[in-house]
Structure formats: structure tokens, C-alpha cells
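Title: Comparing notes on inverse folding

I've been comparing how different people in this forum approach sequence design from structure. To keep things fair, I'm posting one structure and asking everyone to reply with a full sequence. Here's the target:
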């Protein structure tokens, strides 16, 4: 995903290109909650809390990279 900081009368930060791919890759569903923890200037660790408590594959966004 692309992280974008836009300044116009104040600071606005938002996720840009790649959001649909991220949501698909992490099997996001309506009601899931995401927490973005900034670890570097433009790098985040993402924690996913599932709306469905029976979901089997809870992991942070960078856990899958560590397994490869």
C-alpha cells in the first residue's frame, strides 16, 4: 500500500494505492478492525482484529513476510 501525507491547512495522512490488494491478500471482512503502528517514517506494522472470532489465521501484516 502507499502511505500519503498531504498538507493543506493541516496534516492529513491516508492510505492510497494498493488498498484493495492489501484487503484481498489479508482476507479482510466487514467489521474487521485494523491498527496501524508506525515503526519508521513510512513503514507500518498492521494488527488485524477479526470481527469473526472463529477466524483461523490471525497474523500481523509482516508475519507472512517472516515465514518466507
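Reply #1:
Here's my take.
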Amino acid at each position: 500500500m502507499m502511505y500519503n501525507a498531504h498538507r493543506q491547512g493541516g496534516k492529513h495522512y491516508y492510505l492510497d494505492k494498493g488498498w484493495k490488494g492489501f484487503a484481498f491478500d489479508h482476507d479482510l471482512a466487514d467489521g474487521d478492525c485494523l491498527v496501524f503502528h508506525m515503526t519508521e517514517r513510512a513503514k507500518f506494522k498492521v494488527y488485524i482484529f477479526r470481527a469473526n472470532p472463529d477466524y483461523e489465521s490471525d497474523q500481523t501484516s509482516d508475519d507472512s513476510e517472516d515465514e518466507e
